[in-house]
Design goal:
This is Pleiotrophin. Residues 94-149 form the Pleiotrophin/Midkine C-terminal domain. InterPro entries: Midkine_heparin-bd_GF (IPR000762), PTN/MK_C_dom (IPR020090), PTN/MK_C_dom_sf (IPR038130), PTN/MK_diS_sf (IPR020091), PTN/MK_N_dom (IPR020089), PTN/MK_N_dom_sf (IPR037122), PTN_MK_heparin-bd_GF_CS (IPR020092). Residues 32-93 form the Pleiotrophin/Midkine N-terminal domain. GO terms for molecular function: growth factor activity; heparin binding. This protein is an alpha+beta fold. 19% of the residues lie in helices and 27% in strands. It contains one helix and seven strands. The chain has one helix at residues 2-31; strands spanning 49-50, 54-55, 61-68, 78-85, 97-101, 113-123, 132-138. Strands 1, 2, 3 and 4 form a four-stranded antiparallel beta sheet that branches. Strands 5-6-7 form a three-stranded antiparallel beta sheet, with no helix packed on it. The mean pLDDT is 75.
Length: 157
């Protein structure tokens, strides 16, 4: 009998805890306000398409680039933007393309050139850059191997 009373008390306590938990969750949910959905602005304006950055003077530094977009209801279809071309980038691959280069390879004795590969690290202003590039340069002064030994061989007479 005593065991049944103890079981009833535990059941009642568990039931009360469940009711309390449901009430707490219900109150929390009721406190949240639903946010009205933002109305999407309909526009027929396309994305901006940008030209390459053209330096004001020289082949690097400050310059400008032109942007255009299409659309019948666009308020602005062309604009000019200031830009900058870093002076330490290799311009032969595009002034807006930055590459991370590997170490120089061994000298090719047939061509007297050594090469290395660069992987695209960064493209400014969504420039169209090659993913990998290869450059070559002359090996420099090639030396012939010296004969082994300390002294030249002498012929006996």
């Amino acid at each position: 009998m005593q065991q049944q009373q103890q079981q009833r008390r535990m059941f009642t306590a568990a039931l009360l805890a469940l009711v309390f938990l449901l009430a707490a969750v219900s109150t929390t949910e009721a406190g949240k306000k639903e946010k009205p959905e933002k109305k999407a602005k309909k526009s027929d304006c396309g994305e901006w398409q940008w030209s390459v950055c053209v330096p004001t003077s020289g082949d690097c530094g400050l310059g400008t680039r032109e942007g255009t977009r299409t659309g019948a209801e666009c308020k602005q279809t062309t604009k000019t933007q200031k830009c900058k071309i870093p002076c330490n980038w290799k311009k032969q691959f595009g002034a807006e393309c930055k590459y991370q280069f590997q170490a120089w390879g061994e000298c090719d004795l047939n061509t007297a050139l050594k090469t290395r590969t660069g992987n695209l690290k960064r493209a400014l202003h969504n420039a169209d850059c090659q993913k990998t590039v290869t450059i070559s340069k002359p090996c420099g002064k090639l030396t012939k191997p010296k004969p082994q030994g300390k002294f030249p061989l002498l012929k006996a007479a």
